[in-house]
Q: What sequence folds into this?
């Protein structure tokens, strides 16, 4: 299946951005990931056997997560991540939203990606396993641990926010 | 949870960034700048949303010169598993070599029948384990896939409570449509097992469906060795009306007992419960006359091993009882009740917030603490015994668990070589036991990428990553010597890349 640049950007750029944001916690870094992933897609799309939009989305998200992993491993990232709060707060966010953001920030990267795919993209655990290249059991246990942590972090909201 | 979903929904790539990206992409890849609909012939298959345009069809037709076998293979590539079934419904407006295979209804159908008789097909059946069905069980479980009296496949999982295994995969051979039965046993004695599920398998089309799961039978089987005991539930004198006691464990109802008229109860009733190990049970009192309920009437810590049950907190129930169900009791609105501050240290925060949800308000501070498990309160701002009134805000410190999460967790990154294709079962054996099972339907998705395996344990262990093809052949792709104490994993020898690729090509 052949998709045009407009189609792919309009339909999938936000999804890639969110997954990368969830993983990296930074808007600027996430933007770079979106552009890298799409560049890669169009450079190799002739050789890919992608036959549905769902499949394409999974491929893009998987490539994005791999890209994020590389970024996190790089020495540059280790230096910048010490400056945490500087680039993470965005203007005009409500207190609740900031709390969610802070709670997500305390999670390890590997948990954030799972949370994003599960709650936002509403993938099933086996699909997340495919995208992240992880055994399903690992996804289930990561999701479980992440939810436990979030539950404690967001405990102030009590029943309003049941994780 | 919707907050998290909203959080992500609100994030988006700014429009100007999108525009920037589009123009950069179009400059570099002008061939994808716009849709060439004029030259594209799109056709659809029945029951399938797969679309193929002419450009791709042309590429494929080059491969098809090899004749019927190659054609069938290419078809599978196009639609994935299950293509054969639709082959005879498929009126493909494709020119050239494909037509002689796919448009001739009779030959395709005949071939299909013949193949079914002649050869058995092997497929992978993945069964998702349901935690709720095996919760509370520790030890080995054997999953046995049967066709009538024939065992097709068996998977044994040791120490199931310690594993993160979420599914078991079976390999089964057969043809046509068959009904297979899944049995579960606690040991190798086949008399001690239970029928758990029925799976309908369509071997020809590589499809299966779990048609029936007998959770109830499974629970009963799992619970065979449970301890039965009674717990004493105090009933205050001033309670009147017909009640039922409902027993909850982890917010799930697990039983109930009719009390009848509370006026006839002297001071307590006995509730029958069963379980194993230690459990926390919450009792909800339902007024059968009004339909109102006292949600957290009492909380018990039950220890089945010693057959003891302890009522958590002394005052909680009477406070709740009086301000809850009786509608004409408006005294409680005028005077805030006071009571002695309970000792919350050591209590799970979730439990405490449920138990005191009408009496205390908690400000929670999460801190790392290695003496208390995550989620447990380890400090409270109001002293035990201090008089507090309803609605008092109490600051509690809740443990986030020990600070260093290193807790002998480590991740093995296993690179899978480029060029890998086909479907596999990938298993990680920790000291001989399967601790992870994953089915990979399309290995080209993982080719050239790392698969991560999260493992945890203590001391030293040998972990082997085994890749099994549909044919049943397998390769022990990598072996690691893992030292959990020093959090190191050392690869023994090399990744057996060539053997794996040989498996992929055979």
A:
């Amino acid at each position: 299946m052949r998709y045009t640049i407009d189609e792919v950007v309009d339909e999938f750029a936000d999804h890639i951005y969110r997954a990368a944001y969830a993983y990296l916690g930074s808007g600027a870094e996430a933007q770079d990931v979106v552009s890298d992933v799409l560049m890669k897609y169009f450079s190799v799309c002739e050789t890919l056997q992608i036959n549905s939009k769902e499949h394409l989305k999974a491929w893009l998200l998987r490539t994005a997560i791999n890209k994020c992993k590389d970024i996190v491993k790089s020495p540059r990232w280790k230096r910048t991540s010490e400056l945490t709060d500087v680039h993470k707060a965005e203007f005009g966010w409500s207190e609740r939203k900031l709390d969610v953001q802070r709670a997500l920030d305390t999670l390890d990267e590997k948990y954030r990606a799972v949370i994003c795919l599960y709650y936002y993209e509403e993938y099933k655990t086996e699909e997340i396993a495919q995208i992240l290249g992880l055994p399903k059991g690992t996804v289930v246990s990561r999701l479980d641990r992440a939810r436990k942590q979030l539950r404690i972090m967001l405990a102030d909201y009590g029943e309003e926010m049941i994780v | 949870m919707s907050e998290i979903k909203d959080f992500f929904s609100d994030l988006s790539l700014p429009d100007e960034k999108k525009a920037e990206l589009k123009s950069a992409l179009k400059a570099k890849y002008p061939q994808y700048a716009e849709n060439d609909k004029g030259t594209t012939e799109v056709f659809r298959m029945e029951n399938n949303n797969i679309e193929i345009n002419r450009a791709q069809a042309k590429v494929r037709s080059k491969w098809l010169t090899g004749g019927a076998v190659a054609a069938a293979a290419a078809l599978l590539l196009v639609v994935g598993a299950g293509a054969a079934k639709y082959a005879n419904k498929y009126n493909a407006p494709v020119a050239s070599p494909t037509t002689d295979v796919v448009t001739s209804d009779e030959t395709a159908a005949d071939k299909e029948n013949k193949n079914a008789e002649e050869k058995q097909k092997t497929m992978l059946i993945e069964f998702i384990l349901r935690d709720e069905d095996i919760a509370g069980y520790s030890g080995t479980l054997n999953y046995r896939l049967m066709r009538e009296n024939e065992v097709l496949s068996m998977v044994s999982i040791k120490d199931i409570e310690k594993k993160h295994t979420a599914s078991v995969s079976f390999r089964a051979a057969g043809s046509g449509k068959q009904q297979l039965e899944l049995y579960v046993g606690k040991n190798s004695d086949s008399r001690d097992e239970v029928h758990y599920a029925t799976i309908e398998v369509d071997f020809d089309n590589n499809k299966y469906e779990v048609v029936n799961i007998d959770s109830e039978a499974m629970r009963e089987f799992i619970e065979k060795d449970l301890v039965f005991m009674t717990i004493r539930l105090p009933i205050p004198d001033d309670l009147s009306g017909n009640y039922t006691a409902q027993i909850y464990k982890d917010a799930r109802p697990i039983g109930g007992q009719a009390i009848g008229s509370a006026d006839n109860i002297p001071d307590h009733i006995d509730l029958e419960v069963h379980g194993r190990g230690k459990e926390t049970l919450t009792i909800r009192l339902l007024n059968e006359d009004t339909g109102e309920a006292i949600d957290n009437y009492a909380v018990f810590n039950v220890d089945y091993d010693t057959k003891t049950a302890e009522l958590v907190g002394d005052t909680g129930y009477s406070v709740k009882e009086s301000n809850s169900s009786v509608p004409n009791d408006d005294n409680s609105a005028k005077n805030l009740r006071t009571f002695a501050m309970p000792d919350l240290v050591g209590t799970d925060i979730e439990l405490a917030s449920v138990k005191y949800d009408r009496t205390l308000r908690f400000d929670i501070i999460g801190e790392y603490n290695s003496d208390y498990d995550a989620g447990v309160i380890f400090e409270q701002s109001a002293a035990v015994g201090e008089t507090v009134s309803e609605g008092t805000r109490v600051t509690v410190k809740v443990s986030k668990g020990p600070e260093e999460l290193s807790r002998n967790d480590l991740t093995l990154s296993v690179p899978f070589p480029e060029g890998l294709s086909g479907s596999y079962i990938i298993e990680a054996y920790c000291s001989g036991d399967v601790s992870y099972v994953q089915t990979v339907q399309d290995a080209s998705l993982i080719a050239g990428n790392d698969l991560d395996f999260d493992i945890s344990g203590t001391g030293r262990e040998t972990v082997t990553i085994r890749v099994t093809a549909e044919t049943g052949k397998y390769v022990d792709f990598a072996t690691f010597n893992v030292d959990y104490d020093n959090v190191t994993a050392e690869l023994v020898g090399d990744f057996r890349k060539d053997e794996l690729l040989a498996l992929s090509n055979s």
